[in-house]
Amino acid sequence: MMSVSTILHPSRPLLCHPEVKECPEGRNSQCVFSMKSFNYICCQDREDADKPMCPKFYETLLMTCGDNVDNGCPKGYRCMPSASDENLRICCKPNHSITYIEPETTFRENKIVPLVLPNAPVVQLNITFMGRKIELAELVDVTQIEIFDEPPQVYGINTDDNKMYTLILVDATTGTVNWLVANIPSIDGKLDLSRRTRAIISYVQPDVSDKPEGIHVLVLLLFEQKTAWQQRELSRVPADDFAVRDWIANNKHILDETPLAGTFYGVTKIFFETQGCSEASYSAIFAQGFVLTLYHRPSIFLHQI
């Protein structure tokens, strides 16, 4: 955590003391001792970093360890790469009774949180394109691009008739807004996406001819509004060079930081064959700095490399 830069003094780490001076509020802000400056300074989590955690069905002990299996870990724990950062090794303990919350787990496994969103949606948003249901994290080959000619049909979410809602579809790969509908009313507990609800940014299908080539990750989010959008605020939403995280942060007076519902899917130029593969088998495709793991049902797991 840094001080505000002034004309006379550049930005500096904020000083603190665990017993005398607390750190200001931040993202898990803590007062830690720096061996570099030999002072207590305030630190906080990075916006684009996720808390280290063990692979599925392992308990996480936030203790770094060496390269060996049990190097530096307590009895019963193994030294394993963190699921959120393979370059970091932490102590993990097997536990097959752990349950995982969805859709948060899938959003984090695919790095949508925290790279694209600060928080995962509360519930999954169910969608169909031209009658075909698209599963959470499903990867669709470009040969089927025609199913995206029309906007998705949204269902499976109960809404409050006293509230209004915002629906946004973003190509997280190119930073473009593919669809934006605001001030959506609720009628009988369902979103009213009839023709009278005008789109702020009209729907466009994913353009896989755009660079970067490879995979386009589309994120569809539904937000409950605290108040109505004003036209001047909506006119400032850029169709290109768009960052969901910044947009949410700049509109906290209208939107909650946590989406009410959401889903994501991928569209790729890379043709893949899954026939004959068992559910446990997979193949990896390297494209644009990400590794995509394709399981029996094609799905995307994004890992920075």
From TrEMBL:
Family annotation (Gene3D superfamilies): PEBP-like
For this protein, the record's SMART domains field holds: WR1 (SM00289)
Please state what the protein is called: Uncharacterized protein
What Pfam families would the database entry show? Lustrin_cystein
Instruction: Give TM regions.
Output: none
**InterPro entries in the record, alphabetically?**
Cys_repeat_1, Lustrin_cystein, PEBP-like_sf, PEBP_euk
